[in-house]
Amino acid sequence: MPWPRNLAKAIKTKVNLAGYTSFKIGGQAKYFFEPKNLKQLQQVLILAKHAGLRVFILGAGSNILVSDSGLDGLVIKLSNKSFKQLDCQGSCLTAGSGLKLNALISFSRNKNLSGLEFLTGIPGTLGGCLMGNAGAWGKAIGELVKQVGVLDYNGKLKLLESKQLKFAYRKSNLNNYIIIWAKLKLLAKEKKAIAAKINQYLLRRKQSQGNNLPNAGCIFKNPACGSAGRLIDNCGLKGMARGGAVISKLHANFILNTGKAKSRDVLSLMDLTRKKVKERFKINLEPEIKIWK
Ligand SMILES: Cc1cc2nc3c(=O)[nH]c(=O)nc-3n(C[C@H](O)[C@H](O)[C@H](O)COP(=O)(O)OP(=O)(O)OC[C@H]3O[C@@H](n4cnc5c(N)ncnc54)[C@H](O)[C@@H]3O)c2cc1C
Questions:
Q1: Going by CA atoms, what residue is nearest to atom 47 of ligand 1?
Q2: Can you tell me the distance from the alpha carbon of 244 to that of 212, in angstroms, rounded to the nearest whole number?
Q3: Which helix (H) or strand (E) holds 160?
Q4: What secondary structure does DSSP assign to 37-96, as a single string?
Q5: What's residue 1's pLDDT?
Q6: Domains and their CATH numbers in the chain
Q7: What value does the mean pLDDT take over residues 54-62?
Q8: Counting beta carbons within 10 angstroms of the beta carbon of residue 236, is it exposed (0 to 12), middle (13 to 18) or buried (19 or more)?
Q9: Mean pLDDT over residues 12-24, rounded?
Q10: What is the pLDDT of residue 212?
């Protein structure tokens, strides 16, 4: 595609996506772009729209499985510092969507603001976290959101107030937008107490997951009746392997890349898991990870 001169150099072609995902799996993106600022992002969105190019917004890549054959589209990553601004007013924190959650948690701890600690150890960005209403230990980010600044896919800016936002278990109504920033409501607390909570959550996470091999967190959402991991475990699937992918022996809802796993290996394990859980418990497991193809 003939990009205008100001973008032509910055838009890379045939970029390997495996290195941009926590799973370390996936083929190439036809186009890959890290905009310098909002204006460039708006410009590229309009061009992509006119060219009928599919657009994929990439955060930290910790909740996606990219197809082995790559993506015939434009991947946009909001990695520039202009998408990582942080500001604090009273007990409200305004943060850019490209920020990693750990940076956000450290910043709020240093400002004596509590509320984000439960997200400790989730390796995503604020944007990815809001999109999927990430959470842990019975809490989710949606509970803290006051406002979100978004762009639609025509490059138009919009401000969404909390009453316009809908968050539910691992989902939001932000699917048609690119999240640029969010304002979160936190609570004033002593730094020491916040740090202690962060350490507690880190320890709990290490004990329950402790996986060193590349993965994308929980593969399936928990069904209404309880834990997807327990259902998978009860089907005897822990340790089951396909190619380079294996179902974790520690946490059955995790699939690990033992080194050379392909996307098709993970998909094959997901199919098997869904089939076995359906046969045994009559429950349809729904993927939590986003499959990009
Ligand atoms: C070891 C491990 C543990 C995990 N533990 C948890 C957990 O406890 N709880 C939990 O909820 N999740 C967990 N996850 C999953 C994942 O980290 C979260 O879902 C995280 O919020 C995803 O953020 P991301 O930036 O990596 O998003 P990505 O994986 O890059 O993208 C996920 C989705 O969000 C969209 N997206 C990303 N940024 C934006 C944006 N700015 N605007 C619009 N759309 C955007 C993408 O298009 C995609 O659809 C875990 C993952 C790993 C690897």
A1: 57
A2: 15
A3: strand 157-161
A4: SHHHHHHHHHHHHHHT-EEEEESSSSSEEE-TT-EEEEEEE--SGGG--EEEETTEEEEE
A5: 84
A6: 5-81 (3.30.43.10), 84-207 (3.30.465.10), 228-292 (3.90.78.10)
A7: 98
A8: exposed
A9: 98
A10: 85
pLDDT of residue 107 exceeding 80, the answer is yes
Range with lowest mean pLDDT among 90-94, 179-183, 209-213: 209-213
Give Cα 15 distance to the centre of its chain. Answer: 20
Q: At residue 210, does pLDDT exceed 70?
A: no
* CB distance 292 to 224 below 8 Å: no
The set of protein residues with a Cβ atom below 6 angstroms from ligand 1 is: 22, 56-64, 78, 97, 122-125, 127-129, 131-132, 134-136, 178-179, 215-217, 290
d(CA 83, CA 97): 6
The CA–CA distances, whole Å, from 264 to 20, 67, 126, 188, 280 equal 18, 8, 29, 47, 24
What percent helix, strand, coil does the chain show, rounded to 5?
A: 30, 30, 40
